[in-house]
Amino acid sequence: MPEIERVWQANLHVYGADKVWRQLNRDGIAVARCTVERLMRRQGLRGVMRGKVVRTTIRDSKAACPLDRVNRQFKAERPHQLWVSDFTYVSTWQG
Questions:
Q1: Which of 90, 85, 95, 93 is nearest to 14 (CA)?
Q2: Is residue 81, in this structure, part of any structural domain at all?
Q3: DSSP 3-state helix, strand, coil percentages of the chain (rounded to 5)?
Q4: Which domain of life is it from (predicted)?
Q5: Cα-to-chain-centroid distance, residue 60
Q6: Residue 89 — left, alpha, or beta (φ > 0 → left; ψ -120 to 50 → alpha)?
Q7: Would 65 be classed as within a structural domain?
């Protein structure tokens, strides 16, 4: 069904069967969701899968906590007086 591939390509290969089905119905093409699933599977079209939530920190209850060097006072009176960061995790396409 060329309409399925058209919708899939128009949405940057991101849409899965559910969103393709909804878009086809909005476009006035009445088709069952299971039919869209079957035809997409047959054509090898897949939407982008949402990733699992990655657990980045496994806390050690015996380890000492880092010192709070600013006593939770994050207001600086001049530029470059106070720098604070908490960089935990960045998801990339490469893993």
A1: 93
A2: no
A3: 30, 0, 70
A4: Bacteria
A5: 29
A6: beta
A7: no
Amino acid at 71: N
Can you give the pLDDT at residue 88? 74
Model confidence pTM above 0.85? no
Enter the tokens of residue 34.
Answer: 């299971």
CB of 7 closer than 8 Å to CB of 20: yes
Do residues 20 and 4 touch, judged by C-beta distance below 8 A? yes
Cα–Cα dist 75/63, whole Å: 29
Instruction: Please write the tens of the pLDDT for every residue from 28-49.
Output: 999 999 999 999 999 999 999 8
pLDDT of res. 5: 96
For the chain, list residues with pLDDT below 70: 95
